[in-house]
Design goal:
By secondary structure, the chain is α/β, with parallel strands linked by helices. The chain contains 9 helices and 10 strands.
Length: about 300
Amino acid sequence: MPVTATDGSGWLAWTRATAEGRSREEGSATRESHHDGHDGPVPTSNPVPRRPGLTGPHPGPAGPPVRPRNDPAQYDDLADQWWRPRGSFEMLHWIAEARARLVPAADRPGSLLLDLACGGGVLAPHVQRLGHRHVGLDLSATALPLAREHGIVPVRGDVLRLPFGDEVADVVVAGEVLEHVADPARLVSEAARVLKPGGTLVLDTIADTWWGRFSSVTVAERLPAGPPRRLHDPALFVDRSALVEAAGRAGVVLHLTGLRPSALDYLAWLTGRRLAVRMLATRSTAGLFQAHGRKTTVEGRPS
């Protein structure tokens, strides 16, 4: 079945309205999404302009604009950081490598991997050897050209309203996005809808716990390689039980594992003795965690 795409973007209004209602952060920023009316396979030639992955100026002395927490415009402000060594999105590369460990190899020609909220394409280098056609969806017009330069077929759209048909994907991944939407259950339902029976769903996100808030906001936003400040709104962190229940209703039994950076690797990275940091599995899922599972058949039996 061909992969089709129609551009849509309810995500900005959806997340922003909820985050502002649930958070005490003041101020707001509006950013309208673009609608180019494209309907059909996304061409490799240009709905959005190309830009190099490792060029562009560093943020000026004043830094990027200060925006409300969870404002997607931050990704546009930091577009030159996606592939910059030791840039603002460095840890996303480490998490992407761990995410790729849960992605199975293609078992048929033309196997399709849908990468939801693909950003600048940081998953691409880690799944190239697995044999899938890699299609990435994101809202950001500045990130998608970078994803394309790293071998991803780009689609601009909304993770809560996927512009794909039912049961088209062999693998669906949604990394570091559940904690940015107001309705994670809807995202999981949409991901399961486009996943074939027997296909694999891979997620990673941040738990709605005191440790999740402390480790990912209070501490991580102040550490080198941690997320840029104000990127996350703790009010949107994910209830693990609700996530498992939502996936179960959609036919996917999730298995959860915690994730943390190797302390020794991080120290070596800080001193320039390592280029990357391994993310290690942990028994506790109270902070950053992964989830994966296979979609059952229509009759409810595992494929």
